[in-house]
Design a protein that fits this description.
The chain is mostly helical. Helices cover 70% and strands 0% of the residues.
Amino acid sequence: MKRRLSRADAEKILINDPYFSKGHFRQRIFQTFVAFLGWCGLILPFLWLLFPLVFPERADLRHFVIYEEEKTTLLFLLIFLSISFVFLLIFYITLTFWNNHRFKNHLQKKEQYDVKQVKHRRDLLEKAYEERFGSKEFRENVCYYVVSKEQNLETDFIQKLYQKGEKDV
């Protein structure tokens, strides 16, 4: 039977982040502010470079200088990254189709085990379990079941059962 965990036990086992728990209001504000600054630090340089290109009339008012090298560099990056994206997209789609083709047609389709032996062993286990613990329907539908000492399985029970079963066949 599975042991049920209380909320307190689960909190001891699992990782708990105070950001999402009640209270800790100052920590939540501080962490949100730091995350916002980090995103601004990432996005602001790109906006700074793109501002004179997108709004040239306002750039003149703010004394932004548009250099020709900026335009050619950004245009080169746009073209290069677009071509790279298309190439990688075609490459990965081709690899996916090739992998699916190999999986369907070239990999082994036969079973990696002896089907008769597995069925025989399954029948042996079912018979032994039925002798010790009752019918399969009873075992699957009972809510509470106590096993006596005589019914406990030895550590090599299944190994002995398989050896005995293989001799009988």
